[in-house]
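Before drawing any conclusions, I needed to go through one protein's amino acid sequence and its backbone structure tokens, quoted below without any editing.
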Amino acid sequence: MKNRLLVLLLALSAGASAREVNIRVLATTDLHGNIYAWDYFTGREVPRGLAKISTLIAAERAGNPNTLLIDCGDTIQGAPLEGVYQHFVRTGSFPSKITPVAPLTVDPMMLAMNALHYDVMTIGNHEWNFGLKNLNAARSAAHFPWISANIGTTTGSTAKPFEPWFIKVVDGVKIAIIGITTPGEPTWETPDHYTGYRFLQGKAAAARAVADVKQKEHPDVVIIAAHAGLEKEVKNGVITNEDTRFDNLPGENMVHEIATQVPGIDAIIFGHTHSELAGARLGDVLLMQPRNWGMSLGEMDFKLDSGADGHWRVLSKNSRVIPVTNKTASDEAILQMAKPYHETAELYLNTPVTQSPVAMDAAVARVQDSPMIDMVQQVQLHYAKADVSFASILNGGLKIAQGPMTIRQIAGLYIYDNTLYAIEGDGKMVRAALENAARYYRTCTGDCTTGPLINPDMISYNYDMAAGVEYEIDLRQPEGHRIQNLRYHGKPLEDSQKLRIAVNNYRSGGGAGYLMFRDAKVVWRSTEEIRELMIDYFSGGKPVPAKAVGNWKVIPEAAEAELIRETSREGPRLK
């Protein structure tokens, strides 16, 4: 009888000590300098940005105070609100000699993220775009750590190392956040932008970090915060889409690999690919990716219980994304904090540059030669002193009216902070690059009057057009055999013809299938972004082209007409 009573008392004691805890992890990624709900390239309000995300964060924290807030990187590059400030940090002056509306002394994204009490951020690849001076300034301004388990320092380096993980105890639960960064910086950036750092492969670094953190910290929950894409479908492990074969550098997107091959992980929150995912699992690993530019807030909820032994067990976990909409209110405190940066960016964007002699629409500029793409090519050929130039339409929604042209329109035409390279190449390289670009189209059949003829598996900004050569793209031919009548100075372009070729720094890295550029010798690099080169070029009196050069076209004519119909927002004509 005494033994039974003792067992009952022990059971009651264990039950009394057990309790349940609900932990909430909120996440953003790929904010790219978006604080205001504002499209700087069109000058209109849009449902995105950290000011609106702040409102969602407040609501979710109110629902559960046991909350962490993390970011998965790519924060300090992108929107002109950040870009103008980064130019000042790098050069000591503001672009186009504008005078800011107020002193701008601290990185605006760090100001806003500090105010929102972020706990930790994984460093992204775009944090390196402006060089180490800018990276270190932003990192020093953050009131939260920047982490990455696969970025190390070189021997004898004075570079400040990144911690591999972040630990926080929330209501008695110890949570480990491990950072993983896509390792492509040596391909994408010039060496001076990462001097002293080395980039390791993500899966091996994640495995080491998980093992180490479990041994040293004994966390109850382990979460990977990765600035890297999934690469494969969750359901069946196949490549996400056809174009992934070409778009990814080796090891660039390794989340699927980490989730399925590294034991001991409870969840992975990731970014980099500007997609969105929630409620997904790979085995027992919960996955989530919020949208880029502050278009949604990611949320993970963990329910845990603790027994008499003091060990927490995860009872359940789930994830969702909360979209930002036009009805989502902007946090006025965040807007006021960023207002001087926003107004300075607007002052810069409204600076007059030149005159556009014609109206231009980027939507059709991907299917027939346009003065819009020729503007970019003209600048690249000039500054790189190149024979041939490759460029793409980066913003398919841009329209430029006839008349005065400001920096806003030029910035809208070249929305990324790429720099310009001149590389040594030949005719064979040019042909291979054009064949790769021609994957943007589908092969047409029959009379080529029905669509769609645009390949949805190729990201549109990876479709490059060339200047300095003449060619036709025959959609009746299969991939790899579409470039016809390729000519240079009026004569057939020989594979052996030596050429100086203008490309941007990202294209030179060989991503998106442009492997022919990867090992080419770089003979010149610009010190300014291509956007600034364009501003300098046209503000210096060079005229905007009134008509297209017409050096390339899609054939047959029926296919071109169908493509124009598709891209001019009429949609494809279907059988």
